[in-house]
Every structure is written in structure tokens, then in C-alpha cells.
Amino acid sequence: MKKMNLLLLTLILLCALVSCNNTSDDKQFTLLTSSQTGVDFINELKENNTMNYFTYPYIYMGGGVSVGDINNDNLDDIFFTGNMAENRLYLNKGNLEFDDITSSAGVGGNDKWYTGSTMVDINNDGYLDIYVSVAGLDGIKNNELLINNGDNTFTEKASEYGIDDIGNSVQATFLDYDKDGDLDLYVANYPMTPFDAPSSYYYYKMQNSEDYETDNLYRNDGLSFTRVTEDAGLRTYGLTLSATVGDLNNDSYPDIYISNDFSSPDFMYMNNGDGTFTDVVKESTNQTSFYGMGVDIADFNNDQYLDYIQVDMDAKDNRRSKANMASMNPDLFWSTVNYGFHYQYMHNTLQLNRRIEGDKPFFSNISRLSGISSTDWSWGPLLADFDNDGWKDLFISNGTRREINNKDYFNEINLRPMSNDSLLYYTKQIPSEAISNFAFKNNKDLTFSDVSVDWGLDDKNFSNGATYADLDNDGDLEIIVNNIDQEAQIYKNNSTNNFVRVKLNGDGNNIFGIDSRVYVETENSIQMQELTMSRGFQSSVSPYLNFGIGNDETIKSIKVVWSNGNSEELKDLKINSIIEFDISNSKPESKLENGESNLYFENVDIVEHKHNENEYNDYIKEVLLPHENSRLGPGIAIGDINGDKIDDFVVGGAKDQPTAFYIQKSDGTFYSKSFGFSKEHAKYEDMDMILEDFDNDGDNDLYIVSGGNEFEPNSPILKDRLYINNGKGSFNFSNSSLPDNFSSGMRVTSSDYDKDGDMDLFVGGRVVPGNYPLPADSFLLENISDGNGIKFRNANESIFSFKEIGLVTSSVWTDYNNDGWTDLIVVGEWTPIKFYKNNEGRFSEDKSLIDEDSTRGWWYDIVAEDFDKDGDIDLVIGNLGNNYKYQTSGDETFDIFYNDFDKNNSGDIVLSYFNDGQQYPLRGRQCSSDQIPAIKTKFQDYDAFSIATLEDVYGESDLDNSLHYFTKTFSSVYLENTGNSFKMNSLPTLTQLSSINKILKKDIDKDGYMDIVVSGNMFNSEVETPRNDGSVGVYLKYTPDSGFEAVSTQKSGLFINGDVKDMEFITLNNTDYIISAKNDDLIEFTKIK
Known about the structure:
The protein is mainly β.
């Protein structure tokens, strides 16, 4: 039953009335001094001739911090680890004052290099013990277990328990992996490895690791532990910086995420429930961080699915990014991928749990959209509700004692011979710059705001391990940080929002209920937390759960699901209280549901066909190209080919792959069909296609857009193709039906714009091959077919004079002004939204409908429909999205300049962005000088280039004389027609997770209003720009009151992952499906239920 701890509640109420340290602060946190707290620990590094960066490169990884109530006085105590300093244990006396009891407790350690620590009651005597990880250059590295004697003293017994792991350990975490009721142990090890080790080294070591190199799993057998690493399928090799536990797939078994440094791949170990684990990181994510550091697992968006944050070392600041941070070497990147590891990028990844299918979850990285991708040299992320508003915020500790990636310094010393007696000197000359930690407030819409300054957490440090705890029992979480060569920090939390704390009393073998879940429902939300101790980096939290509930005055219910599967629920509970649950009051719980039963969509297997992209390296000719233009297909077309009144489909091929034709049989299955031209025409790159009856003879003909970037400009291979249907389901190629337009195209759309009874075409030109961003010509093709066959001609300039529209990606024919004539709207990359008014068969550009500059974006598709049923046509337009490296804000645009800057008769690409109000080149000194070698002469070192503005590098005159495009928005939008203009509104956040390449419209839920389905992604980015892969498709339901609302994957069932380039509806056996075409991947069928 519910029990209230009266003593603690009284203390909480007192603290709410009077600040426990009699100070006031209008910021969320107040930094307490060591004279106030008594906590004066410093993880001081004493570098010398034998211990310095050049002898031990891992010297700056720092120490950890753990919190827990070691003496059961209801106050959390603090344990810090030191690398070359003594470990310290501080006993909480209340009022945020502490006593150093290190010496009397016997926990200071010896000359070992201590790293992470975790508090846990390993012997179930009711007192928290401390497990301490050990690493270091040499010497004894056995981990230690400090058993709490119950009298504020500890005895080391790791060997006695069989868990004195000999690896280069960083952290450990406790979990009941086999659900036998007691806590087992996973130890994360980081074997010393040369920083320049190639992917082949990791690949070999993963198959041939030594016992001291692998992470280890130890099974709790009661009085001791047994190493079961091999039996559990966990033996491998990785530079592990954190191991974090959470039930990622809602099957009630704890899973483990392993974050690995450098090219060594991460592991997402799913618990199979039989004592073994399976790594699914490649199936369950599209990308991970490259220099994977700390991880925290939590449900940050309150959807009751666990998400996770992994940090890396991508600088937010332009100067630090270009002077100190490692660049992403293309050869290293692709070797990592080609060895079967993963797509790994140098930035933080915030992985949003999208769905659970079977026993596998799937995550999308949304760190760019969320605003937390770049936090410098980061170590420990902590997802917790620091302002008690009911939503988990994010704290990230970061800093490196010396800038070991400073390019200028290491370029200089690489030219000098170094003797052993000079290593200390050169170590101390490495540049050093303290930087502040980061705090982000959860905006409740998948985004975060940087509140480091506003919350008082912007002190400059060299921070490593960090944790949180309610040190003063006032219902909010303090932050505790372990720094190198600086005093540890305690930040008092000044929150005034309501809260509830949940304390779990488990059984005799897991007395704190580790691995259990707790759900708290209030007036406005449902929150979920899972109790696990080791979080972030080298640190652990206290074994209770704190829930902020904002201004809510009542708690509807709290439900605990214990690690053994039992549950208990209490209702109508008081705020600002401590609620205790006892496992003896629980009852069996049904298995956690992984999703909704009434889903709209379901993926099915119909046809196995794969688009095979040809090998071509766009960057040989275009060094600073933002993305590959040779990987923009395939398109797909749906229609009846053989006259049986059921849908067939055509899907394009890359260069050297024939166009594929699939004919539907009466039972809904398909057979493939080829034609006489198929093999010969494989030389073309198919971009888009359309099935349409161009000659009005009752059957569908086929128009295919030719494109690609691997051909020479104006090559005949770029001419589009027309295939005439003979009425029996066969096509004949007609070379004379089309004009000789040798333009690299992208999309084709049809309409009888001149009302002469046949279908005309608009063909959008994409890019001049090898000359990005020069736009290819676009054409309006007038259908002049007669009895002699199909014939198109280019509309003359009196009809359509807009050949050089831009880098066109899509278009739509629609009567946007209700004058009875079909108008044309065109979108593209770097272009504004272009409106072409049809004046009875002649077109003029209409700029009266919307501010043109405000619509400059990277648009990829457009649909038209009267969504709000007010009698005029509205628009939905897909853009790059807000989850990409490229960002805009207000007047801070993202730009491209194209000019022959170095006067070598070849065009040069310059991309620019804004950082702290200044416009800088996007790319660094090395990449920029690969294109223009003179940059290395002009800027002799990386430091000089790191502060150089765009004008400093390229010159005002040359920039002014360049071809210049800019973007104002990357958001996908809904344009509402207000009668004589369009009002632009961003689509819901879920649609902004990646580029939208295709939009379909249909009344999915049959409520009388047209809904939309979107899909996309862009896998063809250059390697310094993490690929745009956050979309799994989104179903957007339209309602007249709310407009478009995004339905989550868990509730819709829509899951279209991959590099989706086209998508169409198709009907099989009177049931509607979606067919999706993906670059270099299998097509996919999605049933609409």
C-alpha cells in the first residue's frame, strides 16, 4: 500500500517555504561554492615525463561521480573518482552541506587510474555499495567493489565477488538481464588503441579480441558472479565509453546500448529473453555518432517509448569547429561503412523511438531539428526534468583539458623530432580552452532551447562525469559535475514547480527495484521513467524517480511495472509528496503493448525489385558539391499498360539498369516484362516517368525523363524518351516524337493547358551535369499529335518564356485563381515558389501571391488541393526539412556562390552559413583548399581560417559577381489560399525530420477531407554533412478545426524508411496500396487498411 515518509515530507515543505541555504536567485540553478558545501574535490592531473598526453592519450577522459544514500538517513551522498587524485566520499548533512569522510570510510583508493563509478546494493543488505572502474597506462587495472559495512566504512571485495574485471574499464551498469530477480553486471571496457587505427584493425579485432579487451557481462549467482560474455553473445571489440540500460522494445527485458569511440561501431544489444543478446544497431537506426561518448536513455517526448541521446564532439562555434575539431575524412568514412559498421557522423544524435516491430525498435536521429547536435567536446548527457514542468530537459557536460585536435599545433610538432624527455614540454604546450557545459530546455515539440546562460550553467570548465540528485529533498534535481583541474561543482536547483517522488521497495535480491518502470498521469500528461543507475558518462544516479508536474494540482494515478512483470497502480495522489511502492503489493501484469491495433497502414511483400545505382563519384569534378546529383532517381509511374483495366507500374533504372515494367495479374500479383529497347536503353539514367494517353487512342503511352550527373552537358544521352503503346501492352520507342532537348531533367507533369483536347507536358530541368548549381533548361512541351503519330514541340516564347527557372524538382498543374484555366506552379532547389498564370494558353509569372524571397528553399515536391473546402486551391510543398546541417533563421540565410574564384577556367562552389551573426564559409580550410589551393597560401594556418569571414576568404568583388542563390526556409509548408494570396504555415514537426521528396493526397480516414502522406530522405549528402535520413514517412490527417495533424508511426503504422525518391498509389484487388521507389534499394508496398 501507499506509504508517506512524514519526515521527508516535512523537510520538503520547509524547503519550499525557505531556501535551504538562505539564498535567492532568479535563475534555475545557483552554483554553490566549496565553502558553502564542504565539497572541495579536484580531479587534478599531475602530468609528468611518464604520464602525459603523448604517453597516455586517454589522459583527459576525466573521472565520474555517483550519488546515493549510503547511510540511510534519507539524504543523498556523493562519491567522486580521481584519475591521479584520491577518490572522495562526501556525507550529506542536510542543508546542502557535506562532510568529507573519505579517510574514515576507506574509499580513497590507491595509485590506480579510477574512472567511472556506480552505487548499488550488491549484497542486498539495505546499504548502497560502490563499484569503481579502473583504467590507466599500466599497472594493476582490476576494478574495485567497495562493500558498505553499514557504519560509513567500506571494504574492497571485487575479487571475492568475481567482478574484478581486468580490462581498461570506463563504466559499469547493473541490470537483471536474465530476470531471475537479482542484479547482474555489465562492464564497459576501452582497450588502448592507436587513434589512427584503420577500420580494418577494428574489423579484425572484433573477430579476435582478447579477454582484457572485450566488454564483459557477469551473471549474479548469489554469493558471487560468473563471467558469461561469450554465452550471452557479447564478446567483441569496441572502444566503449558508455554502456546504458533500457527496455528499448517494450518487451520487459532490459537491453543495452554500447557507445563506442572512433570507427568502432556502436552496439544496440537487444535482450532475447533467453540469456543472450543480438546487436540490431544497423536495423534499428539509420546513423550513429562517430566519436560516440556518453549516452542516456529516457522518454523525452512523453509517448511512453524510450529514446536516447548519444554525444560526440561537434563544435557549435565556427572558430572552434574549424581550428580544433577533427574533420570527416571521406576515405575513413566510407571504409567504416564498407567494413559493415554503420553510417557514423561527428555530431550528437538524439534518437527518437518511432515504432517497435516484432522485437526490434526503430529510431530516427533528430538532433539537428531538436537543436542539440553540436555541443563541442561532450562527455555526459543527462535527460531529466530539471525545471519540473513535466518534460525532460538535457544537460551535457563537456570540455577537454587540452585541445588534442588542434590542427595547427599538431601539424607543427609533426615536423619536429620529439625525444622522451621532451614529451611533458610538448604536452603542456597543447592549447587549452575551458568551455561551458550545455543545458537545454524541452520545448515539448521535439525541440530544445539552449538555456545554459539563462539557467546559470554557463561556467567554463573542463567537465567529464556528471549526475543529478535531489540533494536537499525539496523536490527538484541538483546537478553535480566532476571537473579536471578545477573544483567539482554542485548546482542548486531553484525550481518552484510541483513534483512527486517515487521510491520503490523491491524484494530481497533487488531491493531498489532496478529495471522497473513508473508511469505518472496528471491533468495534462502521462510520463514514464525507467529506474536504471548508470547514466551519461562514468556516473550514476540515486535509486528513486523524480517527476516534475508543472502547475498540475492533482495526480490521477501512478503505476509501477516491476522488473519481474508485476504491477501496482495508485490513484488520486497528492502533489509534492513521496510515494512508496512495495513489490509485495503488486500483481501480475500483462505484457507491454508495442503499438496500436487500429492502424491505417501495413507494409506487405508484393514484388521484389531493386534499383541499382551505378558507381560514380560526383566529387572528383565538383569538390565542394553539397550532395551527389547522380543519385536522384528512380521515378515510378502507375497505369494500365495492357488494357485490362487494372494498375500496372513502371520503375526507372539507374545508368546501366533497364527500365522495369511490371504487369498486374487478376489475382493481384505481378510479372515483369521487357521490350526490344530495354537492354539498349539501359544507357540512360531514368529520373521520372508518366503513363498518359498522348494520342487519344485509348491506351497509355510512356514518357521518361532522362537525367543524371555523370554525362557531359548537352549530351544526346540526356534527351527524354517517348514509348508508344500499340494497344496490346507493348511499347515502341519513338525517337522523332520529341524535340532534341539535351537537358538533364528531373520531373514531368501533364495537363491540357491550351484546351485543345490532348495532354501537354512540363518537364523540369534539374542541373547542368558537372556544373552545380547551374540550372538545366526546363521546357513546356505542346502536344501537336495528329493521325501520323505522337508529336511534341517546345512551346514558343510567346507561350512560355521561362526556360531558365532554376534547379527544378517538381511542378503541379492547377487552377489556383479559379479563372477556368490550368496554371503551373514550379518548385526547386534554391528557388522561390514560382507561379505561372495561364492567360488562355499563354503564361506569365505571377509574383503577387506571396513574398517571393520568403519562399526560397530546397523544395522537392508540391501538391494542390482544396484542403479546407473553401472553394479555392491550397498547396502542400515538401522542403529539405529542419533536421539537416544546413539551417536558416530570420535574416540569417544559407547561401551558395558560384564563380571561377581562382581563375582556372572552372567554376567553384562556395556554401556559406551564419554563426553568431557573421557569415562564414561552410567548409573548412582543408576542403576549401582542395577546390582552391590558393586558400592555403592566403591563410597559412587553421587558426587564421577559423576566424575568417566569407568576404575575408573570397573577396567582396568576386562574391558580388557570382551566381548567388540563398534560402530563407527549409521548412515543409502548407500554403493556404486566402483568395488573392497564399498564407504560408509550417507543417507539423514530425514532417520536418527530413526532406520530403513525395506527397500523396487521399482521404485516408474517410472523413470527407483530403489527407496527405509524405515520404523522403536524402542519403546522397557529402560525408561532412550527416545524411538526411530521419523520415519514415508521415500520415497527415486534415481536420477543419486543426488543419494538418501528424499521426505518429506508432498510431498510423506508416513506415517507409530509406532513400525514397518517388511514391504513388496503386490498386490491387480493389485494395489501395502505396508503392515507394528508393534509390539503390528495394521498392516497397504499403497497404492502406
